[in-house]
Amino acid sequence: MLYRFPPQASVNRPVPKARIYEHSKVGSALRNKFISQVEAIVWAYKLAPETINLASTPAVPEIQVFDIVLKAQEVDDQVLLAIDRAIPFPIIFRLHHGNRVRVVAAYKRPSEVDASQWVIEGYVSSEWVAADVAEQPLPQALDLQGLYHQLLRSFMDEPGRPGEPLSDHLQRSHQLRVAHNDYRKLESRLQKEKQFNRKVSLNAELRAVQQRIDQLRQL
């Protein structure tokens, strides 16, 4: 899903990779990933009280939207993490490759120990969609924190449970991805297995993983 951001929030300013290297203390290995995977970084939008008419909160004073043009379809999470560490605000990344777009974001919040430091948790992402797909209006929200939370939830495969905090929703979404990955690996092993006893054992493991998936998907 792609969202339509208000024109008054447009920035459209290139972000030099050197700035990211400097602020995130990027080493040579990660710098090589930037060079091989990233064509360009653009600060596309700034969602703030003066640009979107929503109040800021201590947890979400602003939301930045960055467009990243990729050289290949995939980008390492460490590349996105370096950009997140360099920018002291929550970021929504729009990844561009060919004529397709995918939205990626991490749950980013001030540290409870030191509010000047940011805690960056696991990334969530949408599926790849055509770049010319119809954009959706932004979710209704009372403030920037509410908007940020709704955006993050919209990028997750599974809907939130009634009253489920965002942190719990993110953790459950991550656990589901791990469980689905485990299921695919077990299926592949089962298809290759010749011994009857091992097939029985693998089938039992598959049933256990499926049960875990079903429990995690319960609303």
Defining key terms:
219 residues; alpha+beta; seven-stranded mixed beta sheet; 9 strands; 25% strand
Notes on the structure:
The strands form 2 sheets. Strands 2, 3, 4, 5, 6, 7 and 8 form a 7-stranded mixed beta sheet that branches. A two-stranded parallel ribbon has the order 1-9. Helix 1 (17-24) packs across helix 4 and helix 6 runs antiparallel to helix 7. The protein is of the alpha+beta class and 219 residues long. It starts with a strand and ends with a helix. 42% of the residues lie in helices and 25% in strands. Strand 4 (63-70), helix 4 and strand 5 (91-97) form a beta-alpha-beta unit. The chain folds into 2 domains: 3-155, no CATH class; 172-217. The relative contact order is 0.12.
Structure summarized in a few sentences:
The chain is of the alpha+beta class. It is built from seven helices and nine strands; from the N terminus they run E-E-H-H-E-H-E-H-E-E-E-E-E-H-H-H. It has helices at 17-24, 28-37, 49-52, 77-86, 144-154, 166-192, 196-217; strands spanning 3-4, 10-14, 38-47, 63-70, 91-97, 100-110, 118-125, 129-130, 136-137.
Write the layout of secondary structure elements.
Layout lengths: L2 E2 L5 E5 L2 H8 L3 H10 E10 L1 H4 L10 E8 L6 H10 L4 E7 L2 E11 L7 E8 L3 E2 L5 E2 L6 H11 L11 H27 L3 H22 L2
Parallel strand pairs: 1-9, 4-5
Antiparallel strand pairs: 2-3, 3-4, 5-6, 6-7, 6-8
Helix pairs in contact: 1-4, 6-7
